[in-house]
Amino acid sequence: MTDSLVETGGTAGTCGEPESSDSLKAFGEVLKVLRKRAGLTQEEFAPLVRYSVTMVASIEQGRRFPPPAFVERAEDVLDAMGVLRAAAKHLSRRPGLASWFRQWAQLEREAIILQTYECRLVPGLLQTEAYARTLFAEQLPPLGDEQIEAQLAARLERQELLRQRPNTAYSFILEEHLLLRRTGGRAVAAGLIEHLLELAPLRNIELQIMPVVRERHAGLDGPMRLLETPENRWFGYCEGQESGQFISEPKVVSMLQMRYARMRSQALSLEDSLSLLRQMRGA
After folding, report:
1. What's the Cα-to-Cα distance from 177 to each of 137, 146, 166, 199, rounded to whole Å?
2. What is the spatial distance between Cα 239 and Cα 247, in angstroms, rounded to a whole number?
3. pLDDT higher at 43 or 1
4. How many separate helices (H) and strands (E) can be counted in the chain?
């Protein structure tokens, strides 16, 4: 499930909730038992963890992935002795489909740092409408017109994060060949390069290009995303053709951070990246 589809939910339901699983249902049951042991109704418990009653009910029913902040607050409120934290850690290690990207997208909206390396296509946050429309139109199996329009609207709405969160530090490393491919044709490719040049000067965005020719490359294992939450916790996300993996294991996240840091030194500098984009544009 690549970036072209997974960011808007992919195969999951239109309600925006993840596909349920036995592990999500089990977590929900444990939460419910602990809540009732504490003598709390959902209405009493919700404000204590600073989430809505609807959110609490959805998690208990196994229909929503428990956000990290929810787990930590529930641990404290319910004196769960690490049970919820351990269960949530197990959930985050389990590969899934589009529902797992929804968990990532939820953290993304609150992140103070977001780092993205891509070698397949321009990340959703940086896409133009024409580029995104091309990706949706070329999706296999084919999407209907209404599906394309709905996913395009969701993509464009998500892009508002770049300007709505000026205190979030966004770092992007893009392979040069993504811009040389001319996805959608010359006009679409030209519009995409112009769009990147418009975004690059924003103070909260760092955009680097990884040259086609690079003898040493720390990102050969594929695309990755990293983020830091307001609680200073780091998470990672990696995805393939039909699956995505949300990563919270500190050792794995640390490894990804090491690779990303190396790639930042291997990619063109911010100034040289802008120069290359201008050259591609023909300025």
Report:
1. 21, 31, 29, 19
2. 11
3. 43
4. 14, 6
- Assign domain 22-93 to a CATH class: mainly alpha
How far apart are the C-alpha atoms of 257 and 255, rounded to whole Å?
5
pLDDT score recorded for residue 9: 38
| Residue 164: its H or E element | helix 161-164
Helix (H, G, I), strand (E, B) or coil at 209: strand
So what's the architecture of 97-281 in CATH? 2-Layer Sandwich (3.30)
Supply 60's token pair.
């208990």
Q: Is the pLDDT of residue 196 over 80?
A: yes
What's the pTM value of the predicted model, to 2 decimals? 0.69
Mean pLDDT across the chain? 86
Instruction: Write the DSSP string, 26-80.
Output: HHHHHHHHHHHHTT--HHHHHHHHTS-HHHHHHHHTT-SPPPHHHHHHHHHHHT-
**The two domains 22-93 and 97-281 share their CATH topology (first three levels equal):** no
Per domain, the residue ranges of the chain are 22-93, 97-281
The structure tokens listed for 128 are 């133009």
Question: Residue 265's pLDDT band (boundaries 50, 70, 90)?
Answer: very high
Read off the tokens for 125.
């946050």
How distant is the alpha carbon of residue 79 from its chain centre? 31
What crossing angle do the helices spanning 22-37 and 53-60 adopt, rounded to 10°? 120
Name the 3-class secondary structure at 138. coil
pLDDT band at 58 (very low <50, low <70, confident <90, very high): confident
Between CA 32 and CA 65 the distance in angstroms is: 15
- Residues 51 and 58 sit within 8 Å (Cβ to Cβ): no
For residue 235, what are the β-bridge partners? 227
